[in-house]
Fold this protein.
Amino acid sequence: MFTELGASTNVDNPKPHFTHPCEPRKVFTVTLDVCHMLKLIRNMLGMQNIFDGNDRIIKWEYIDHLFKLQEKGLRLGNKLKQEHVNWKKNIMKVCLAAQVISGSIADSLKYTVPKNTT
C-alpha cells in the first residue's frame, strides 16, 4: 500500500510520506505498527532461519536450546518460558514476541549458542 500511494520504507531511499491524490498540498506520513512488526519478526524467526548483518544464521532452535538449558536450572536473567517457545499458541501476544527478541534473550544466546555454528 505504501508503494501504491507513493511512499517507501526502503532503507536506502526512505520516503515515509505521500501526498493526497486530489489535494497535493496535503501530505500524509506513514508509520508501521510497532506491535505488529514485533510479532512479524518473531514469526519469521520461528518459521525459517534468518541471517544477521554478518551473514551468520539465526535459528529458532537456539531459543529452544536456551529454554531447555534454563529448564535444567541454568538461569541467564531473561523471561524465556514455555509460552515463548510455543509461540504459535500465543501468536497474538505482543509482550511474548517482544520478550523473545529482547536484549536479555540475545545476551543469553551469546553464551549458549554453539561456537561452531555459522
